[in-house]
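Table S2 (continued). Query chain:
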Amino acid sequence: MTEPFPPVEPYAHGLLEVGDGNRIYWETSGNPQGKAALRVHGGPGSGGHRGARAMFDPEVFRIVLFDQRGCGESLPHASDPSVSLEHNTTDHLIADMERLREHLGIDRWLLYGGSWGSTLILAYAERHPERVSEIVIAGVTMTRPDEIDWLYGGVGRLLPGAWEAFRDAVPEPERGGDLVAAYDRLVNSPDETVRVNAARAWCAWEDAVIAHEVLGSPGYYSDKTDDALMAFVRICTHYFSHDAWLEDGQLLRDAHRLAGIPAVLIHGRLDLGSPLQTAWELSKAWPDAELKVIDDSGHTGSPTLRGAVLEAIARFGRSHRGGTLGGGTPDR
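Corresponding output:
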């Protein structure tokens, strides 16, 4: 299986009140009686791409998508500089996922995502393992400080010109310090020109890191509307300047809480921004997880990686025989 399923439209959608003045967009498509599966988007702040529905057989799965706080169709939108991100943290997002699960009447669900979505999936599953049936991750990250330092510093050794442009977009006195924190200040400046220039420079760097991924989506990060781009960078810098509010190594340390949850970890060998080491370490700490390394893929995927994701999701769909409304406990 290498091709996604034909497009489907949601049969239900809405905005869920999650507190602190936030409403998160959600939608369900596919089979209302099917196995529940939640797509957890990356970024943070990218929004849930609707094309992700096509990774699931709509006759088998009850497909749930949502936009995390401040992005996509969720409100208020972080593109507005007056919107505070004080109540937008990893703990808030975990609580939002639980509130959405309860709102939809789901007992357990399969979780699928990658990049930042991987970190959020792991954080949620370690907090609520009894609510997770299986996990499929495409692009494993745990948002540890050394991973953040690599993406916004270390990998610059391979891309010196692009990295110098990224560094030089912040004021000279800050160039030798924490660049992520510097960008966080810039995209929250009262000066619109400062905010816009910083957001574009940030995405230009992200695009430089994936520029070699000709089988994936080079140029992915800058290919956004102005509002989506600003929300993405504000939320990214907010999370990464706070190490995602996770203790260093927390997700790997607590991987024992994932015992009994079948998983497939799929990672591109050519991923410069999120090197394979993280996926390798997680697979060692999680015996129920199978690691698949895709030689022709980087961070934004390839047809081979897409096929591996489709196969993993389909395999877990085949393991679901019957179950309760909304994707209750499947047979294992």
